[in-house]
Amino acid sequence: MLLADTILIFHFLFVIFVVGGLPVIWIGEWIGLEFVRNIWFRIIHLAAIFVVVGESILGVACPLTIWEDNLRQSESELGFIQRWLHYIVFYELPEWVFTVIYLLYAILIVTTFLLIPPYYKNTRI
Q1: Cross-strand pairs, 124
Q2: I want to staple 78 with a disulfide (CB 3.0 to 4.6 A). Which of 37, 82, 109, 119 is the partner?
Q3: How far is 46 from 71, CA to CA, in rounded Å?
Q4: How far, in Å, CA of 71 to CA of 75, rounded?
Q5: The pLDDT of residue 41
Q6: What CA–CA distance (Å, rounded) separates 12 from 3?
Q7: In a 10 Å sphere around its CB, with 0-12 CB exposed, 13-18 middle and 19+ buried, how is residue 36 labelled?
Q8: Where are the alpha helices (DSSP H) in 1-125?
Q9: Per-residue pLDDT tens for 87-105?
Q10: Are the C-beta atoms of 118 and 41 separated by less than 8 Å?
Q11: How far is Cα 28 from Cα 41, in angstroms, rounded to an integer?
């Protein structure tokens, strides 16, 4: 159970990073925060959405979801925190809806990457 909970928390943090990273970049640029142009932050953020889009297009289930589901097979009931994290992370919609959403979000992230380019060691790319 502890391992399944750890995976769920990591999955939740991954979703927060992918979804929340874009508004953080926009707001950070607007108020002048330098870290939003950090090359490593931006490349990892871009790679994360590409992984999500790739899984969705290929019809591959997220390995974190599979791993957590396998670990929870013997459990009949989720605790309070687990129920809320599941409610936030997982939705019941057709797969194509998620693919479209992921693709549109990836386009926004790539556009932001181009419009607000990252810096490497105080130089522009």
Answers
A1: 119
A2: 82
A3: 29
A4: 8
A5: 96
A6: 14
A7: buried
A8: 2-31, 39-58, 63-72, 80-89, 95-115
A9: 677 767 788 888 998 999 9
A10: yes
A11: 13
Name the amino acid, one letter, at 9: I
112/26 Cα distance (integer angstroms): 8
The domain segmentation of the chain, as residue ranges, is 2-124
**Per-residue confidence (pLDDT) for residue 105, from 0 to 100:** 96
Q: How far are the Cα atoms of 37, 47, 118 from residue 122, in angstroms, in the given order?
A: 9, 22, 9
Question: Which pair of structure tokens corresponds to residue 79?
Answer: 């605790």
**Separation of alpha carbons 43 and 107, rounded Å:** 14
Query: What is the model's pLDDT at position 81?
Result: 64
112-124 per-position pLDDT tens digit: 999 999 987 655 5
User: How far is residue 97's CA from residue 79's CA, in Å, rounded to a whole number?
Assistant: 29
d(CA 45, CA 50): 9
Q: Which two tokens stand for residue 84?
A: 């809320």
